[in-house]
Amino acid sequence: MRPRSSEQSISANKNYFDSRGITQKHDEQHLHNEMAKRIGKALLNIYSFDDEHTTMLDFACGTGLNSRFLAPYVKSIIGVDISQEMVDRYNKRVENQGISQEEMRAICVPEELLDTSIDQESDNRLKKLLGDVEFDVAICCMSYHHFPSISSATRLLSSLLRPGGYLYVADVESISKADHTGQSITDLEPIFPDGACDAGVVMHQYGFSEVQIKDSFVNAGLAGLDAETGQISRFTYDVATRAFKNGKAVNIFIAGGMKPPL
Ligand SMILES: C[S@@+](CC[C@H](N)C(=O)[O-])C[C@H]1O[C@@H](n2cnc3c(N)ncnc32)[C@H](O)[C@@H]1O
């Protein structure tokens, strides 16, 4: 049965990713490691990481595949996830590598702080949980399709950035049945298996179009209309790599936006 509310979908995701089999599979499968490596390489080309200064948030960090790839290029990383199993494995890996918690750690965030109806009070509680850090850069890789509302997620991530900080989101680009020209959702091919959608684990079965992602960045203040050029500024969109999902060849995009400096 598909979950009805965002609360139910967040719980479904937590239950799914809290299963030990899933955590181990995610961490060890070549496919996931390769994807993290390719996204990481693309991010290194887009953003100037600085190992002495950059503070990074890895949102929906999982077991830390993206964090581990980028760790040599940043000063510190905080991972955030809804699954305690994922977070435990992330932190175990950090401990095994002899890395200090100040440099890299993950935190499991209570479900209610990630609900779509997040208010200012929840935002503040989350900020406190993260030590009131304002991040230079936040990444969220291969996870947006799990979120009930990408607008709320983008707004939340924007609130955790310092002025002038950047958000990068990597996920699957939607594919049209009619050679990428169709705009209507009914013209799109489902990318994720039906079972994952019925179980409420995947909320965006069709992936995302550039327009959808851009809208969420604009609404979160991470992109805006440039009065002089009439163009959407502070927003970037690139294809980072290709992958096979559910038997279909898909693009993996990286969208980026900047929180306006003060
Ligand atoms: C496919 S994994 C991706 C993990 C990692 N970013 C990577 O690319 O290897 C999706 C992750 O999103 C987390 N997740 C799902 N819903 C979430 C939510 N509402 N808030 C935070 N994390 C969530 C899951 O627990 C899981 O670790």
UniProtKB/TrEMBL annotation:
Region (Disordered): 1-22
GO biological process, one term: methylation
Keywords assigned by UniProt, alphabetized: Methyltransferase, Transferase
Compositional bias segments (type: Polar residues): 1-16
Annotated coiled-coil segments of the chain: none
Pfam (any one): Methyltransf_23
GO terms assigned for molecular function: methyltransferase activity
Entry keyword annotation includes Methyltransferase: yes
InterPro entries: SAM-dependent_MTases_sf (IPR029063)
Record's keyword annotation contains Nuclease: no
UniProt xrefs under SUPFAM superfamilies: S-adenosyl-L-methionine-dependent methyltransferases
Protein name: Hexaprenyldihydroxybenzoate methyltransferase
Source organism: Lentinula aciculospora
